Amino acid sequence: MKEGAGVRNEREFPSSSSGQGVGARLPRKEDDRLMRGRGLYVGDVRLAGLQDVAFVRSPLAHARIRGIHVPERYRGSVFTTADLVGVKPIRAVSGLPGFKVSEQPVLATGKVRQVGELVAMCLAPTRAEAEDIAASVTLDLEELPAITDMLKAREPDTALVHEHWGDNVFLETNYEVDISAALDAPIKVTREISTARQCMSPLEGRGVVATFDRRLDQLTLHSAAQMPHITRSGLAECLGIEEGQIRVISPDVGGGFGHKGILLPEEVCLSWLTMRCGHPVRWLEDRREHLVASSNCREHHYRITVYADRDGSLRGIDCEATVDSGAYSSYPFSACLEAAQVASILPGPYKMPAYRCRTFSVATNKCPILPYRGVARTGVCFALELMLDLVAAEAGIEPGEVRLRNLVRPEQMPFDNITKKHFDSGDYPEAMRRALAAIDVDAIRAKQGQGAADGRRIGVGVSIYCEQAAHGTSVYSGWGIPMVPGHEQASARLTPDGGLELRVGVHSHGQGMETTLAQVAHEILGVDVAKIRIILGDTAMTPYSTGTWGSRSMVMAGGAVATACRELGERARRIGAKLLQHEPASVVLQNGEVRGVNGSVSLKAIAHTWYRRPQDLPADVDPGGLEVTQGYKPVRDSGTFSYAAHAAVVAVNPDLGEVEILDYVIVEDGGVLVNPLVVDGQIYGGLAQGIGTALYEEMPFDASGQPLATTLADYLLPGPTEVPAARLDHMETPSPYTQFGVKGIGEGGAIAPPAAIANAVNDALRPLGVELMQSPITPHRIVEAVLAARATKRSAA
Amino acid sequence: MKPAPFAYERPRDLDAALSMLAASNGSAKIIAGGQSLGPMLNLRLVQPELIVDISGLAELKRAEVFGGELVLGALVTHADIEDGRTADVTRGAMRGVAANIAYRAVRNRGTIGGSLSHADPAADWISALAALGARVTLRSLAGARTLAIEAFIVGALESALHPGEIVEAVHVPARAPAAHWGYAKSCRKTGEFAHAIGAVLIDPAAATARVVIGAIDTAPVVMTEAAELFGGRIDADYKQRFDAGVADAVLAKAGIDDAAQRHIHVSVLKRAVLEAAA
């Protein structure tokens, strides 16, 4: 099964000679605006009569609401659930058997189930005044026991987040392929592994400006959102109005990472409010709201056993995985995306004959957990790659050797793994070999043998993952959730002056799509990239799309742009043939011109004739014109598989717990790269976030469910001095199923670093008998483990 | 994250500022660089009725040496010290501390008086200046008084300042020619508050040692006669004589129950001792 247009590598692309097509390292067009501070974000939207909203949020994790008291002078400026008549709760359901539905009232009703849950909406001319009003509202709450530990949440007689469920489990899944075949393996390693709860921390938080246009009978919602069309569908459901009555505009967006991939209760609230009060209203998420109230990510727990032969060959994995899903499932869906995916992706890029995985998506009194860059893969990679290092230690071989022994091999491609994931292409062992060579494991081993002069210990760690991207209808239909991607559409329009307008329903919030989609169009039509405008982020101006998530935009929207441009080119070619007085079959479109034996006519001249001088066209011209919308799906929609091997060298001070990353290598295969410069940026950014997961980021909660890292002084994000200058190496194995052979790579950078860094730290500290199985690896956790190991040694001696 | 409403005054001289503070009956807050108070206002952790902005008071910006002692006005910034715009009697000790406070943007605006008044246990000056044997002058309409730093800092975010009183100046004694200085801290990341600070001023010739263990949950542990950490006496071989077990016991006595935390503090202190001996 091959892509109709044929598989090509970059050297075959005709436009690459212009330096603007697929494969060109083109600086990003949008940076001219963004880097000069001339972007326009939700916070920059100014509308006449705009007023600000601040929310009263729950100070408790779990409580019954006995009363909400609003001072007399503020009645009319404060709105509670009692006011929102007819507004439905947010329901993000799944058709998976046994799934339990959470209903999230947009303003708390009856109970609050997390700190920060919206209780009342306060309106004032400025945010400061709105906050004054919010501070004057008092809540009468009856505190209930809080569920904060996802493992204890499953014990009998525990308090319930949603009473009518009978337990605290959104969903339990089981997957097994003959685990009994692995049980007699000579190597059996069992551990508990966990990753901390994190905040997604885009530079720009969420933000909403809502207004109602009486002439159009239309609500306009400006929102920092990754998927404006999905937001519109969800809003229409909650508000009970037609989708046509809603326009969602997502202007420049300062980072998404999943945080902006849901319908917010705040969006519903402000939509209702502007219709009620008749003027524009605004709410901008502040950093404290982001940290404590809106959404988190990443909190996984694994009880995992890996079986292997003496030579390190994998015999099987047996795992019980639990994800803390928080109190609610966010729309379109969040509650089980992580845990249920763990079961299908835990085997990673490895072959094995036996496998069992049981998963639990557990409700707790914390904010919802959302799929964050890398989604479940970061946790899965952490768990599996830490375990493989233990297998290597048991087998007495190098960690890199264990990987090479078990990775799927290039001659097996395409490969269906034990969970029926379809690996489209690639050479995984080669990526690992290149990473091992670049980091120079032998040199590190020699250095370790000499001992460290400064008391620090050196360690090297590797990890490898696969990133399924742009998974389509066949993958998502089984989930039974409100969002299933189908054909991605793009509109392409030649303007009368020969420019090109492209309309796509995905959005760009740092991915550089205003450049890369233009490169795709240039590849087909030869129009100068400077004359190509990408229109996105507006439901009124773009075709429907599930938006930007799952590293899908270049595969899906890129494919749609290519398809639409091909059709547009074909129409232009036929008009051009008429103008050249040739048979259509005897002319070609090349470098922005239609050429025949007697001469050529430019796309610009063709467009000018079509729009401005139709009298020059013959009567039998194709009436279709120079504006087309086309849909696209890869020839197989089970997803592209990009992958990368990461290798890290660290120095660890065992007495202070300080970790310094001395060297970092990434060997990435993202298929054909439309713009390697943009891909490098994606990888560097993902790496920074992965370092955050590995060493810094953690949102702890106390026993009453209070989030403890409430400012950026407590919630630590890596800064420029914490992110090393990584060395990047690219492989380009084309996907056989996509236009140009591209693969999605948006998330990969954030997947492997926690595993590689943890393995490096453990490698450094292994002689001390120390093993760290929890992210982030903090100074305190290191020193605690070092002291425990010393105490064990003393008592043994 | 917007502050609750407050009144704002920017007096032209110290007497006017003190009068405003006296009239406010404790409901005023002083702002200088605003590096800590700004976020606290925005988080509504403090909701003063009046903010007295002292950044226009020229008399608090002086830095002079009197009789071998350096007197720094409360408004001297960390960057002033880092860049050497103020005189130095510590042979670079203060300059080194200043250069590693937070990051440059904070150092440009943050003041030494503000840092002391805020009394954050993880801040640098309360530990460094205690080790250097510095004192502060506090002034109110009623007059002035002078306290040793270790007497001034009474707890986490708690100083000896009375309502109506302001930190006017810091007095830093000259570092003795034979005194060794060591200052070490451990931070999760560059520019972050430290989670462990060790500061030592050791004079083997005089057989004295001032040792500070900072960035604990309360006021720093200040040992003005720290011989017990070095086997009972201070001598040229103090580096070899440093007793981590005694330091650990001191921290346990100070209420730090967590062994790993104590170990990190002791390791940082050891690093400061090694630096002094280097």
UniProtKB/TrEMBL annotation, chain B:
Keyword Electron transport (UniProt): no
InterPro entries: Diverse_Substr_Oxidored (IPR051312), FAD-bd_PCMH (IPR016166), FAD-bd_PCMH-like_sf (IPR036318), FAD-bd_PCMH_sub1 (IPR016167), FAD-bd_PCMH_sub2 (IPR016169), Mopterin_DH_FAD-bd (IPR002346)
Highest taxon listed in the record's lineage: Bacteria
Keyword 4Fe-4S found: no
Record keywords, A-Z: FAD, Flavoprotein, Oxidoreductase
GO molecular function: FAD binding; oxidoreductase activity
Protein's name in the database: Carbon-monoxide dehydrogenase medium subunit
Upper taxonomic lineage: Bacteria, Pseudomonadati, Pseudomonadota, Alphaproteobacteria, Hyphomicrobiales
